[in-house]
Amino acid sequence: MDAFKTSSLCMEKPAIYRITVRGRLDPHWTGGLEDLNRSEQELPGEGRNTIMVGRLADQSSLSGLLNSLYELHLPIVSVECLEAES
Protein backbone atom coordinates (compact mmCIF):
# COMPACT_ATOMS: atom_id res chain seq x y z
CA MET A 1 0.00 0.00 0.00
CA ASP A 2 1.31 3.43 -0.99
CA ALA A 3 2.19 5.61 2.03
CA PHE A 4 1.15 8.76 0.17
CA LYS A 5 -2.42 9.30 -0.90
CA THR A 6 -3.23 11.48 -3.86
CA SER A 7 -5.80 14.21 -3.41
CA SER A 8 -7.95 16.16 -5.81
CA LEU A 9 -5.97 19.32 -5.01
CA CYS A 10 -3.90 20.25 -8.03
CA MET A 11 -1.64 23.23 -8.67
CA GLU A 12 -3.20 24.15 -12.01
CA LYS A 13 -6.90 23.64 -11.22
CA PRO A 14 -9.42 25.96 -9.53
CA ALA A 15 -10.26 25.63 -5.86
CA ILE A 16 -12.27 27.49 -3.24
CA TYR A 17 -10.15 29.03 -0.48
CA ARG A 18 -10.77 30.75 2.84
CA ILE A 19 -7.99 33.21 3.67
CA THR A 20 -7.85 35.01 7.01
CA VAL A 21 -5.59 38.00 7.67
CA ARG A 22 -5.11 40.08 10.80
CA GLY A 23 -6.32 43.61 10.29
CA ARG A 24 -8.80 45.45 8.14
CA LEU A 25 -8.59 45.43 4.37
CA ASP A 26 -9.58 48.72 2.74
CA PRO A 27 -12.97 48.10 1.07
CA HIS A 28 -11.78 49.94 -2.07
CA TRP A 29 -8.73 47.71 -2.54
CA THR A 30 -9.49 44.90 -4.96
CA GLY A 31 -6.05 43.50 -5.84
CA GLY A 32 -7.45 40.27 -7.26
CA LEU A 33 -10.25 40.00 -4.71
CA GLU A 34 -13.12 40.86 -7.05
CA ASP A 35 -14.61 37.37 -6.85
CA LEU A 36 -13.99 36.78 -3.14
CA ASN A 37 -16.56 37.44 -0.45
CA ARG A 38 -15.14 39.47 2.41
CA SER A 39 -16.22 39.67 6.01
CA GLU A 40 -14.69 40.94 9.22
CA GLN A 41 -14.43 39.32 12.61
CA GLU A 42 -13.80 41.32 15.78
CA LEU A 43 -11.52 39.56 18.25
CA PRO A 44 -11.87 40.92 21.80
CA GLY A 45 -8.57 42.41 22.89
CA GLU A 46 -6.82 41.43 19.65
CA GLY A 47 -8.34 43.62 16.96
CA ARG A 48 -9.98 42.55 13.75
CA ASN A 49 -9.55 39.81 11.17
CA THR A 50 -10.60 40.01 7.53
CA ILE A 51 -11.88 36.74 6.08
CA MET A 52 -12.01 36.17 2.32
CA VAL A 53 -13.73 33.18 0.70
CA GLY A 54 -13.94 32.38 -2.97
CA ARG A 55 -12.75 30.52 -6.04
CA LEU A 56 -9.25 31.09 -7.36
CA ALA A 57 -8.16 29.87 -10.78
CA ASP A 58 -5.10 27.98 -9.58
CA GLN A 59 -2.34 28.03 -6.98
CA SER A 60 -0.46 30.67 -8.95
CA SER A 61 -3.43 32.99 -8.34
CA LEU A 62 -3.38 32.05 -4.66
CA SER A 63 0.33 32.83 -4.46
CA GLY A 64 -0.16 36.22 -6.15
CA LEU A 65 -2.97 37.11 -3.74
CA LEU A 66 -0.92 36.09 -0.71
CA ASN A 67 2.01 38.20 -1.96
CA SER A 68 -0.31 41.20 -2.36
CA LEU A 69 -1.59 40.78 1.19
CA TYR A 70 2.01 40.51 2.43
CA GLU A 71 2.91 43.75 0.65
CA LEU A 72 -0.01 45.43 2.46
CA HIS A 73 1.60 44.31 5.76
CA LEU A 74 -1.42 42.20 6.72
CA PRO A 75 -0.29 39.15 8.72
CA ILE A 76 -1.72 35.96 7.23
CA VAL A 77 -3.51 33.98 9.94
CA SER A 78 -4.67 31.02 7.85
CA VAL A 79 -5.23 29.68 4.34
CA GLU A 80 -7.66 26.80 3.89
CA CYS A 81 -8.66 24.91 0.77
CA LEU A 82 -12.38 24.30 1.20
CA GLU A 83 -13.08 22.55 -2.09
CA ALA A 84 -10.87 21.52 -4.98
CA GLU A 85 -12.07 20.78 -8.49
CA SER A 86 -10.93 17.43 -9.81
Structure explained in plain terms:
By secondary structure, the protein is α+β, with helices and mostly antiparallel strands. Helices cover 15% and strands 40% of the residues. It contains 1 helix and 4 strands; from the N terminus they run E-E-E-H-E. The protein has a 4-stranded antiparallel sheet with strand order 2-3-1-4, with helices on one face. The radius of gyration is 14 Å and the shape is globular.
Short structural summary:
This protein has 86 residues and is of the alpha+beta class.
How are the SSEs ordered, and which strands pair?
Elements: E1 15-22, E2 37-43, E3 47-56, H1 59-71, E4 76-84
Antiparallel strand pairs: 1-3, 1-4, 2-3
Order of H and E elements:
EEEHE
Terminus-to-terminus distance: 23 Å
Figure out the total of helices: 1
- Tally of extended strands? 4
Major sheet characteristics = 4 strands, antiparallel
- Uncertain residue segments: none
Helix content: 10-25%
Strand order of the largest sheet: 2-3-1-4
On the 0 to 100 scale, the average pLDDT is 85
Instruction: Calculate Rg over CA atoms.
Output: 14 Å
Q: Strand fraction band? A: 35-45%
Backbone structural class: alpha+beta
Shape: globular
